[in-house]
Write a structure and sequence with these properties.
This protein is mainly alpha-helical. It has 5 helices and 4 strands, in the order αβααββααβ. A hairpin with an 8-residue loop joins strand 2 and strand 3. Helix 4 (94-163) packs antiparallel against helix 5 (168-203). The longest helix is centred in the middle third of the chain and has 70 residues, at 94-163. The two termini are 57 Å apart.
Length: 216
């Protein structure tokens, strides 16, 4: 019985891991694909579109011709229980309506221009972030290579100090350089992670997906 329960547990864990693998994938995106992806997935892009659609909906509602309104009134105090039904309609002078429509059209045109400008600003920010992340990767690569070189130099300096070919001050200076470079590397890594997280959220990437930024 215990063996059967263990088997079911293993199957459950395997099934859960399979689901996690299906849900989390690897996304590869090129620089020229960023605009289309952001338009479809970016939260900011959706908000920009919603603001314009809201203005257009307000315009359409305000410019509708009014329908007749039916009112019903019943006096329960009176013994006769008289009831009254009225039918009314609001009329608007044609020139007043056309003036209002022209005003709303100007407002809608302004909203459209604002949408385009906001969308362009947002796309520029995303593309700038894309390039910055690539520069971060290149910077960390070079910094890591330099760190390895200085680490090897530190080991050599320790050996030379033991052999009497290097003073203690010189050895300490090299070791301090390694420590300072390690600190710079960790700071850059942390800044890269924070920048990546903000950029992914702004672009609309899922946190569960691995992301590859193609340079070509």
């Amino acid at each position: 019985m215990l063996a059967k329960a263990s088997c079911f547990l293993c199957i459950g864990l395997l099934f859960g891991a399979t689901i996690a693998e299906v849900q989390a994938g690897t996304l590869t995106i090129r620089f020229d694909e960023l605009a289309d992806y952001a338009e479809a997935h970016s939260p900011r892009s959706k908000i920009i579109k919603y603001e314009f659609d809201r203005t257009r909906a307000e315009r359409d509602e305000e410019l509708q011709w009014s329908n007749p309104e039916l009112s019903f009134y019943r006096d329960n105090v009176d013994q006769s229980e008289e009831s009254q039904v009225t039918l009314g309609k609001r009329f608007e002078a044609p020139w007043a309506y056309f003036k209002k429509r022209s005003s709303w059209n100007d407002r809608l045109t302004s909203a459209k221009l604002q949408q385009e400008q906001s969308g362009l600003d947002h796309l520029v920010a995303l593309k700038t972030g894309y390039v910055r992340l690539q520069l971060f990767s290149e910077y960390l690569l070079r910094l890591g290579q330099l760190k390895e070189i200085l680490t090897d130099a530190s080991h050599v300096a320790t050996s030379k100090f033991s052999e009497g070919h290097l003073s203690g001050v010189e050895e300490h200076l090299i070791q301090m350089s390694v420590i300072a470079l390690n600190a710079s590397y960790l700071t850059a890594r942390q800044e890269q992670r924070e920048t990546t997280a903000r950029w992914r959220a702004a672009t609309g990437f899922s946190a569960a997906d691995s992301l590859i930024l193609e340079t070509k």
